[in-house]
């Protein structure tokens, strides 16, 4: 039996616990892709942000495209081949992101869903993953190692930065969307 139900159109909303902010995402399953469209408003440090994001994944939950735009006029467009190669939307390769299959955006818990849904998990299983991390203050993508450990398949995971600077338990629903992200986000829809 699969850990998660077949994806239907669904929306989720989280409030930030460490600052004032909200994130709202709508997921849709299309014949050849999964599309997440979201809006995040908040602050990291002293830098406020208002960001629209669209993430396209293939049906295996591998990130294929990211489009970001901010209320102050900045933007970022990345494309990925689903096998760990990334480029700017203009085609310029980004070799620093080689090997990254998943995407992590700093202002939303939604992107935790990507590796959780992409991989099959057994209780106690731990994996170190290389993520294409995009901070909302600079919009400059970097490769970042993250560790996920399955506490309860389809329900609870432990997330840890590989440099041990942060860790939190994540609870997820039947769609793999975070319901509780200790210290950072709480689901409100």
TrEMBL record:
Pfam families, sorted: Glycolipid_bind
Superkingdom per UniProt: Bacteria
Protein name: Uncharacterized protein
UniProt organism field: Hansschlegelia beijingensis
InterPro entries, per database record: Glycolipid-bd_prot_put
């Amino acid at each position: 039996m699969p850990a998660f139900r077949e994806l239907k159109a669904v929306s989720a909303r989280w409030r930030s616990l460490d600052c004032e902010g909200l994130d709202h995402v709508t997921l849709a399953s299309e014949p050849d892709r999964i599309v997440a469209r979201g809006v995040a408003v908040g602050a990291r440090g002293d830098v406020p942000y208002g960001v629209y994001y669209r993430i396209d994944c293939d049906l295996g939950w591998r990130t294929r495209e990211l489009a970001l735009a901010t209320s102050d006029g900045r933007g970022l467009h990345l494309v990925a081949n689903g096998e760990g190669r990334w480029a700017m939307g203009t085609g310029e390769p980004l070799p620093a992101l080689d090997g990254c299959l998943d995407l992590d955006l700093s202002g939303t818990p939604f992107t935790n869903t990507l590796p959780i849904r992409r991989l099959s998990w057994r209780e106690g299983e731990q994996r170190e993953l290389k993520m294409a991390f995009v901070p909302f203050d600079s919009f400059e993508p970097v490769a970042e190692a993250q560790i996920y450990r399955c506490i309860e398949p389809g329900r609870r995971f432990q997330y840890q930065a590989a440099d041990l600077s942060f860790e939190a338990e994540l609870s997820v629903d039947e769609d793999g969307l975070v319901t509780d992200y200790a210290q950072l986000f709480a689901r409100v829809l």
